[in-house]
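User: Here's a structure from my thesis project, written as structure tokens. My advisor, Dr. K., wants to see whether a designed sequence matches the one we expressed. Can you design one independently, without my sequence as a hint?
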């Protein structure tokens, strides 16, 4: 009996020792894993540049709430790395189209970053029905010269939509006197910003109490501008070959009805998908064109 007790005691000691050794090894493994993570991945606070500006207008960082709003947007857009890299890739492709149109209209170059935060430079649709790179609502688009219907939606035509955005921004700048308020009005509407300025008896965007989306709007533009202007400073590493390029195109003028765009595409030596990729403003498999309007249809040169 005594021998059995001794054996059982020995077995118990061995089991407890094994559990302690396993726990120790597991703890050591976890600690090593933690050390490894912190060794290779560090989340750092960002230093806010002292002389930030938008469209030549200074950002008042001495105002604590403005400083915090800028800090928030810098952090969000720096550490959303995949989205940031896509911004770099797409701006390389589309900024060469947007920049000269802004310049021709006397719109500060910084407004190209407005298009980036609006759509990520994609032809997206918002819950409110705003569409295209510049996220224009249907009525705003029509008021600024675009054709919008089930057959043709020029909000998806980058050149024409950029011109429409310029028209709106120039009107807002004349109304408010600053480009910063013009940018805010692009988000909240000219009437909306006018009413808030009058009600709150202030003249600056930075003194205005607005909804969260408009509150973040200009700081987000400023943050994206800062990051895209200084990629290495914010940890984005890439080569020119990693970026997207816009393929050269040839423009065909059409002032007649196209009864079947798929067949029209084949006659040009391309397919329906390719024609729609370069001309997303064509919304159906036909072009009604009852008014004999002249449209510009883009075709990739390398295919011709």
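Assistant: Designed independently from the structure alone:
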């Amino acid at each position: 009996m005594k021998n059995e007790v001794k054996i059982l005691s020995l077995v118990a000691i061995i089991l407890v020792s094994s559990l302690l050794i396993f726990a120790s090894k597991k703890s050591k493994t976890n600690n090593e894993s933690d050390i490894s993570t912190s060794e290779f991945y560090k989340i750092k606070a960002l230093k806010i540049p002292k002389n930030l500006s938008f469209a030549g207008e200074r950002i008042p960082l001495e105002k604590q709430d403005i400083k915090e709003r800028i800090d928030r947007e810098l952090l969000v857009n720096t550490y959303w790395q995949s989205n940031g890299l896509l911004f770099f890739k797409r701006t390389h492709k589309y900024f060469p189209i947007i920049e000269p149109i802004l310049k021709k209209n006397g719109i500060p170059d910084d407004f190209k970053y407005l298009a980036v935060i609006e759509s990520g430079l994609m032809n997206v649709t918002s819950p409110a029905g705003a569409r295209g790179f510049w996220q224009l609502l249907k009525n705003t688009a029509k008021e600024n010269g675009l054709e919008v219907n089930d057959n043709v939606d020029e909000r998806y035509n980058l050149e024409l939509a950029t011109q429409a955005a310029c028209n709106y921004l120039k009107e807002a700048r004349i109304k408010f006197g600053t480009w910063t308020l013009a940018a805010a009005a692009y988000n909240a509407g000219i009437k909306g910003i006018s009413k808030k300025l009058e009600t709150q008896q202030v003249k600056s965007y930075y003194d205005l109490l607005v909804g969260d989306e408009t509150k973040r709007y200009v700081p987000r533009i400023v943050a994206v501008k800062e990051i895209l202007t200084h990629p290495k400073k914010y940890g984005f590493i890439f080569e020119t070959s990693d970026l997207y390029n816009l393929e050269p195109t040839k423009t065909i003028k059409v002032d007649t009805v196209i009864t079947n765009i798929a067949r029209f595409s084949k006659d040009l030596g391309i397919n329906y998908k390719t024609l729609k990729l370069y001309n997303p403003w064509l919304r159906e498999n036909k072009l009604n064109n009852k008014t004999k309007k002249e449209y510009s249809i883009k075709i990739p040169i390398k295919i011709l």
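When you compare it with your expressed construct, this may help: The chain has a mean pLDDT of 91.
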